[in-house]
Amino acid sequence: MKQVLVNLQNNASSDQYLNELRKLAVQNPIQDEYRSLAWKLLLRVKKIDVSRYITNIEKQKSSRYEKIIKDTKRTLATDNFQRVVKEDQLIRVLNALQHDGIDYVQGINVLVAPLLYNMSEPEAFSSSLELLKQTQTYYSPNLIGVHAACALVDKVLEKEDEQLRNYLQNKKITPLLIAFSRLMSFYASQPPLEAVLRLWDFYMAAGFQMNVVTVVAELKINRDLILNSDSPTDVLQNMQLSDVEILIQESVRIYQGLDYKLKQLIGMHCFDFECCKKLVNKMFGGYL
């Protein structure tokens, strides 16, 4: 890992070294000491703009300050995140993003949190700008990307396990109920934090659109519990990130078995608003 990172730093435009890093990050956890650098390289963050960050935080409270401080108090509150990252650090980064033109909506706080856990404030700020660009449909005012992701979960589950999909449908357990918080936070809202960081190694390497497939993989792993439970809703609500390596392996397996068109929709939905609109209109009747 170390040598690949050195090679990529010295040859930032090298697809060969970037692909090597991606392969390593899919197959194995990134060591804590290398995670900050590896994530920035995988996100293709070209510059840590410290002066831009300082200029933004010097503007003090943003127009969404009250909303931000309401959300930061409960950001990853059940995990050890708050022992490492102080609330005022998260507030500063979120305010700086708002001043930079990122219109804050609930959920951005959870997206920024894993970055800030691994990076300095200026690094997390610059990395957040890039990640929000790559996942921009998720944080539009109507969260259309998250709703489109729910529609894609339904499509992938139908192809992967039609029996399980029909069972959940008959129980009126919808993708919105199953997956909304997982999809919106790219699993950052699901403890434990150590598992989230490993899953984000995978997302950094394979693309954050893979959260759609991860939800289906998680359902498959818990399939027997869901089908045999008197209360499948309780099973779904209590699913834990217990063995993230198995979850990643199952996600890769499912994705490899999908047809080209569905892979294309999954790949586009994080940034293509028209793609999301079509998916949402088809599944939800265009209520957004």
UniProtKB/TrEMBL annotation:
<protein>
    <submittedName>
        <fullName>TBC domain-containing protein</fullName>
    </submittedName>
</protein>
<dbReference type="Pfam" id="PF00566">
    <property type="entry name" value="RabGAP-TBC"/>
</dbReference>
<dbReference type="InterPro" id="IPR035969">
    <property type="entry name" value="Rab-GAP_TBC_sf"/>
</dbReference>
<feature type="domain" description="Rab-GAP TBC">
    <location>
        <begin position="29"/>
        <end position="207"/>
    </location>
</feature>
<dbReference type="InterPro" id="IPR000195">
    <property type="entry name" value="Rab-GAP-TBC_dom"/>
</dbReference>
<dbReference type="GO" id="GO:0005096">
    <property type="term" value="F:GTPase activator activity"/>
</dbReference>
